[in-house]
Write a structure and sequence with these properties.
It comes from Membranihabitans marinus. InterPro entries: FAD-dep_OxRdtase (IPR006076), FAD/NAD-bd_sf (IPR036188). It holds the Pfam family DAO. This is FAD-dependent oxidoreductase. The chain is of the alpha/beta class and 426 residues long. It has a single domain, classed as 3-Layer(bba) Sandwich (FAD/NAD(P)-binding domain). α1 runs parallel beside α7 and α4 packs across α10. The longest helix is centred in the first third of the chain and has 29 residues. The two termini are 33 Å apart.
Length: 426
């Protein structure tokens, strides 16, 4: 056991997304000296421009029945909400095979309870964080709508609502007229919706900046616009982090770089299966008659989030490699889906040069990686939350902090093992 006191023990956190900020938050409260390294400036990572959902309702992992077949169905569509670009790449093909094999009812039933526990823990922690650092990030605890354009989709979501009862979630089923009463300012064309009342939403960019400023004031050292190139190793420990801005040393290394995790893991001879799923968003600053509830448009796999007079639309899951190229056609598809559900919403097609993109880190089973790898005793990884980064970031940060500080974990994390795909079978 490491005998260095927490007061003098140092930690390097690699990655300034929501996971990195949250683990730095909890570690600093435990007395650790923190250096946070990020390849950008915090504002240009996936956590910054997402939809801001805090969703214990999303207990079904992304790897679920029908997902792959839907992606193949939209293979040639330039505006589809789900797209898989075919490519001859060993890691991608291995990830695809694992994803396909995990997309079964058996695996989903096995994994959903662990994901639900993580999300419920994080939901509670976000309230504590808001109370601690001040709610300057527009948190609203009014729930989230699962909007269904067709009766078939509505009936399917009603079954999800029924299944959610085993996780003690509070839901309300709304028919067309009841739903319109919840959104009196905007004409809807929606068959019905499920309101998950335990969900909440925040402005993710404001949250990131609030956390950054809090951590700076708490003494966290930021090393921004810095790329990690390699690591110095000694037997079973990492001794130094080598970057394009110099070399940094610490007692512990926490790696939370989102979709770039496999690249850094490879430098530590650790295999991590993960693909970046590209998402798009655009934010309107002054919507005259705005909606009240954040929502996921289930039939079209996109989302919408209001913050007073601002409105963000977003979606897609595009697997096209580790790139941040913008496809205006994807946003066009999102826009037309929004207008289909909300014909009374007065918004224009987003300009192509102002579309935001981010790469969501997706694992082969839809569960994140949280924990230590087999080889390195002073390294911990956290990431792979797909669309649930904001929803699970606080819990992930607390768990990683407890791992580093050798405290009791708030939940069992066996399902999130870093090493769970090391074997050839699932």
């Amino acid at each position: 056991m490491n005998t260095i006191s927490r007061k003098n023990k140092s930690v390097i956190v690699i990655g300034g997304g929501v996971n990195g900020l949250c683990v730095a938050y909890y570690l600093r409260k435990n007395g650790f000296e923190i250096t946070l390294i990020d390849r950008g400036d915090i504002t240009n990572n996936c956590s910054f421009g997402n939809m801001g959902f805090l969703s214990p309702s999303h207990f079904t992992p992304l790897a679920s029945p029908g997902v792959i077949s839907e992606g193949l169905k939209h293979l040639l569509s330039k505006t589809s909400p789900f797209y898989i670009k075919p490519r001859l790449n060993y890691s991608f093909m291995r990830w695809m095979l694992k994803f396909y094999k995990n997309s079964s009812y058996k695996v989903v039933d096995r994994n959903a309870p662990a994901l639900s526990e993580l999300l419920l823990l994080s939901r509670r922690l976000m309230n504590e964080i808001a109370e601690d650092i001040g709610d300057s990030f527009m948190m609203e605890e009014i729930g989230c709508m699962m909007m269904c354009h067709s009766k078939k989709t509505f009936d399917g979501e009603a079954r999800v609502a029924e299944a959610s009862k085993k996780f003690n979630l509070n839901v309300e089923i709304l028919e067309r007229d009841e739903l319109q009463a919840h959104e009196p300012n905007v004409e809807l064309d929606i068959h019905g919706a499920i309101l998950f009342k335990d969900d909440a939403h925040i402005h993710p960019g404001k949250f990131m900046l609030a956390m950054k400023n809090y951590l700076i004031n708490a003494g966290v050292n930021y090393q921004l616009n810095t790329t990690v190139k390699d690591f110095e190793k000694s037997v079973d420990k990492v001794t130094q982090v080598i970057t394009d801005q110099g070399t940094f040393s610490a007692d512990e290394i926490v790696i939370t770089p989102g979709s770039w995790m496999p690249e850094l893991a490879k430098k530590l001879k650790t295999k991590i299966l993960m693909e970046g799923g590209k998402g798009y968003s655009y934010t309107y600053d002054d919507v005259k008659n705005n909606i009240k509830y954040p929502a996921i448009l289930v039939d079209d796999r996109c989302a919408i989030t209001p913050w007073k007079q601002s409105l963000r639309i977003g979606g897609t899951m595009e697997f096209s490699g580790l790139n941040e190229k913008v496809s205006a056609n994807r946003m066009k598809g999102i826009y037309h889906s929004i207008k289909k559900y909300y014909p009374g919403l007065d918004i224009d097609l987003p300009p192509a040069d102002q579309i935001w993109v981010g790469l969501r880190p997706v694992t082969p089973d839809g569960l994140p990686y949280i924990g230590r790898p087999q080889k390195w005793e002073n390294v911990a990884f956290g990431g792979g939350h797909a669309m649930l980064g904001m929803s699970a970031g606080a819990a992930t940060g607390l768990i990683l902090s407890n791992i580093v500080s050798e405290q009791k974990l708030p939940m069992n994390i066996d399902h999130f093992s870093i090493n769970r795909f090391a074997k050839t079978t699932i």
